[in-house]
Amino acid sequence: MGLLNRLNDPIGLDGIIFGTVEDLLNWGRSKSDWYLQFGLACCAIEFMAVNASHFDMMRYGCIPRSSPRQADFVIISGTVTLKMADRLKRVYEQMAEPKYVIAMGSCANSGGPYWEHGYHVLKGVDRILPVDVYVPGCPPRPEALQEGLILLQKKIRMEEIFRKRKRLAEEDLANQMNYK
Amino acid sequence: MSEKKYIDIEFSQLDSERMRLFMGPQHPSTHGVLQLEVELDGEIVTDLIPHIGYLHRCFEKHAENMTYPQIIPYIDRLDYISSMNNELPYVMGLEKMLDIQVSEKVEYIRVIFSELNRIANHQIAIATFGLDSGAFTPFLYYFRDREMILTIFEKASGGRLLYNYFWVGGLAADVHPTFKEDITEAIRIIRDTNAEILNLLLKNKIFIDRTANVGILPADIAISYGVTGPILRASGIPLDLRKAEPYSIYERFDFDIPVGNGEVGTVGDCWDRNIVRFREMEESCKIIEQALKTFPSQGDVRENVPKRIRLPKGEIYCKAENPKGELGFYIISDGKDKPERVKVRAPSFVNLSALPEMSRGYMFADLVMILGSVDIVLGEVDR
Amino acid sequence: MKPNEIFKELKVHFGEEITELVENPSSDTYISVKPEKIDEICRFLRDNDAFKFDFLTLLSGLDLKEKLGIVYHLYSMELKHRLVLKTEVPKDSPNLPSLVRVWRTADWHEREAFDMFGINFQGHHNLIRILCPYDWEGYPLRKDYKEPEEYHGNRVPY
């Protein structure tokens, strides 16, 4: 609503807002992040509860997609087993850049209650994927997941696009020089 | 313009190639991480191989390394939709071996909470089944109502989904003061919504067309596959452990066992399985109402909780009627404070093994319906 | 029917195959049998009108240090009675007949017992791993199992 307030601003800017393209792009990206509909274990039930009427995740602009190719971020909701790890990696690789990962629940964070004798449990999804937001809890409350979501949106809004590209290009060049 | 050619095709001589299609483990309608290898002849399912184990969390290995009370949280995570029901057979088995008599109040709370959780489970089952068949509204309605049940559980135990509430010899905590009013209100709303869903979903022409005569499981095959729960009852066999071998205080209550009778199709089809679940919710409401009438409000729920649990040498198979079927724990003790072996008889695991039998010969689109009607929870299938 | 009556009846039909009836006040009563003819015993229990055990509730593998055990929990839908059969096989040659042709539910249960304990059910049409990945090594629920250091490039211990 801040935008509309500024439009009614008595200073009289005639609806002109000053900002950078980066801000605009990030604002747009953060407010319509589509997620991959992908449940793993117990946390998926809480994840479903967040989707459903009581908590209503869509008001954050999050729309479930069944295909990883259309998704912006994935919520790893539950225990990742070693049998699943390869598949999960593959699903993640199918997602288009930029992509984000929320690790929901203790199991996805660190193996959770299965850390000690779980011979078939991957102890933390960050061993195979880069995780952006960790949501603790076993399972996390829906409110916790929502906070994780807001944190992710915040992260997306703070992201550098052009400067980062320039910097990365410079770094790449430097690396290449080093190789030579 | 070229001349139109007429080609005579003798269809019986056409040779079609079978196709193998992999469905899952990342698929929205496999209800978790299940992989189905489907062999298709055109669109007809000729064979089906479920590949499970994507959520194998080594429960039985953990159970061997934990003390008896420590196992209860892991049991919650087996069938994570109906945690209260999961805990019941385990604590009953241990109480039987330790010869502990729990108080009247504990028994009442256990029965009430088990039945409430059964309602919550069936709500999810029918809601997700509706999602699979393309109906989104029941999902929203049922999840709205389910929050009320979860709130009651949360007030009593502190957990929304996984409770660790039934302890050996008692309960983790007493129920909250407004327990009775909350449940009465919840049941009223559950009944209201159910009346709506019956017309909205289950009596809907589209829904009936998609589910009637689909995925028929005859009674003799169901028994041979060891299927239990609503699926067995939908096939026309009124086996319910609450009636067949009453445990806890179930013999005091008056309730019926709904069975499938092929109202709109054949006995044992997808529609029957759903209507059995739907009617069971009403039976559960009846049990809760009767239990609330004679609920003893006095008493300490933790008076019989032993300080240290050390089972005598021996073994026990304890079972209870879970929303999904017969959940059993086979506990072997060698006299230490940790069990020698805990084996779970997971109803979803056994019910899923009958899926190839149910789905052979049906269309590929029906496979999603058949899988949805089995109502599996992968945490329990893979343990 | 009580387990001791079933035991007497089985003893008449199978003699030496049926080892003993173990009764313990604090636990379930079970009948110990030899593994070689377990399929015939089970088929007899299923088809005989006095027992009618048409339902295999549970099949579990056990690690008994020197031997491996297999426990069958049977139930009769019609007569509403239960029975526990227990048998043992040596660890170095864990072979016994499969029950898939008696109860179809034994299919997945036996695969699980094979997966977890390495019990070889002879006559099973598809005895492969079920819970662990198909290329997994070792039998996890054996007491002497050591979890692997690495699987497909992922470290397994915490």
Alpha plus pi helix count of chain A: 7
What percent of residues of chain C are in strands?
25-35%
Biggest beta sheet summary of chain A: 5 strands, parallel
User: Helix coverage percent of residues of chain C?
Assistant: 10-25%
Structural class of chain A: alpha/beta
Strand order of the largest sheet of chain A: 2-1-3-4-5
Q: Using DSSP, what is the number of strands of chain C?
A: 9
The average pLDDT of chain A is: 83
Question: What is the first-to-last residue Cα distance of chain A?
Answer: 54 Å
Strand fraction band of chain A? 5-15%
> In which range does the helix fraction of chain A lie?
40-55%
Helix count, DSSP H or I runs of 4 or more residues of chain C: 3
What kind of assembly state do the chains in view correspond to? Answer: heterotrimer
Mean pLDDT of chain C: 85
Biggest interchain interface, per-side counts: B-C, 39 and 33 residues
Q: What features would you describe in this structure?
A:
The complex is a heterotrimer of chains A (180), B (383) and C (158). Chain A is built from seven helices and five strands. By secondary structure, chain A is α/β, with parallel strands linked by helices. The radius of gyration of chain A is 19 Å and the shape is globular. Helices cover 44% and strands 9% of the residues of chain A. Helices cover 47% and strands 12% of the residues of chain B. Chain B contains 15 helices and eight strands. The longest helix of chain B is centred in the first third of the chain and has 30 residues, at 104-133. Chain B is globular, with a radius of gyration of 23 Å. By secondary structure, chain C is an alpha/beta fold. Chain C is 22% helix and 30% strand. Chain C has three helices and nine strands; from the N terminus they run αββαββββαβββ. The chains are: A alpha/beta (180), B alpha+beta (383), C alpha/beta (158). The B-C interface holds B 52-53, 56, 58, 60-61, 64, 97, 99, 221, 223-227, 237, 239, 244-245, 312-317, 319, 326, 328, 330, 332, 341, 343, 345, 349-350, 353, 357, 382-383 and C 24, 26-28, 30, 54-58, 60, 62-63, 71, 73, 77, 80, 82, 84, 103-105, 107-109, 116, 129-133, 140-141.
